[in-house]
């Protein structure tokens, strides 16, 4: 695997509100935060661009709503912002895809000549997957660091309930098998980017 010198790391919605288990329910992959931090560290040390994405929920009951502490980035993300040698961008959004945020992610990537994206963050089957799918559709070379993502149990139609691990794996299969992105490990990405 090759990681371009200007590959952008897109850190999706790593916000304090996702730690509110009473709201979200059981999550998977407790090691995700460590993996996310390691990716940010490698990107910043090598001067590659990092995009931090924040979800500003419009739902008043959401722990991700603006003005509430849960909207803030987790401490390990906040303390790394602005410390890297490369360019940095903050995207805010109210929907799943970072490509529908402000400022315009695709315009920024084009202006910077970036064609490869590495995604990490929350939730695997929601905002990470949606951003990866759109990136793939727009022609970017997208890699998803699977172990640097996590999600939560979810109930859907007909009272179908799926656990977080099952949802994350289904997301990975859809992305990778469907050709939207290559789903790989943080270790593989760090080795190629270092």
What topology emerges from the helices and strands here?
Blueprint: E1 8-12, H1 21-24, H2 32-45, E2 50-55, H3 75-78, E3 88-93, H4 105-112, E4 116-122, H5 124-137, E5 141-150, E6 154-155, E7 161-162, H6 164-177, E8 182-184, H7 186-193
Parallel strand pairs: 1-2, 1-4, 2-3, 4-5, 5-8
Antiparallel strand pairs: 6-7
Helix pairs in contact: 2-7, 5-6
Task: From the structure above, extract its key features.
194 residues, alpha/beta, six-stranded parallel beta sheet
Description:
This protein has 194 residues and is of the alpha/beta class. The chain contains 7 helices and 8 strands. A 6-stranded parallel beta sheet has the order 3-2-1-4-5-8, with helices on both faces. It has a two-stranded antiparallel sheet with strand order 6-7. A hairpin with a 5-residue loop joins strand 6 and strand 7 (161-162). The protein is globular and about 45 Å long. The mean pLDDT is 98.
Gap between N and C termini: 12 Å
Q: Helical region count?
A: 7
Give the beta-strand count: 8
For the largest beta sheet, what order do the strands appear in spatially?
A: 3-2-1-4-5-8
Low-confidence stretches: none
Main beta sheet: strand number and arrangement? 6 strands, parallel
Task: Please trace the helix and strand order, writing H or E for each element.
Answer: EHHEHEHEHEEEHEH
**Overall pLDDT score:** 98
Roughly how much helix do the residues carry, as a percent range? Answer: 25-40%
Shape summary = globular
Strand content: 15-25%
Structural class comes to alpha/beta
Rg is 16 Å
Quick summary of this structure?
34% of the residues lie in helices and 21% in strands.
């Amino acid at each position: 695997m090759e990681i371009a010198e200007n590959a952008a790391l897109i850190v999706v919605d790593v916000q304090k509100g996702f730690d509110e288990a009473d709201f979200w329910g059981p999550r998977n992959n407790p090691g995700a935060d460590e993996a996310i931090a390691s990716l940010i560290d490698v990107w910043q040390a090598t001067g590659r661009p990092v995009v931090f994405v924040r979800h500003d929920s419009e739902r008043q009951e959401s722990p991700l709503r603006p003005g509430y502490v849960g909207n803030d980035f987790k401490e390990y993300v906040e303390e790394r912002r602005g410390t890297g040698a490369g360019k940095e961008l903050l995207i805010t959004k109210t929907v799943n895809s970072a490509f529908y945020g402000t400022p315009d992610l695709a315009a920024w990537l084009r202006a910077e000549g970036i064609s490869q994206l590495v995604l990490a963050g929350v939730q695997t089957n929601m905002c990470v997957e949606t951003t990866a799918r759109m990136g793939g559709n727009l022609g970017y070379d997208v890699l998803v660091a699977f172990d640097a993502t996590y999600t939560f149990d979810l109930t859907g139609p007909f009272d179908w309930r799926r656990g977080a691990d099952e949802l994350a794996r289904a997301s990975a299969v859809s992305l990778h098998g469907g050709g939207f992105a290559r789903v790989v490990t943080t270790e593989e990405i760090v080795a190629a980017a270092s």
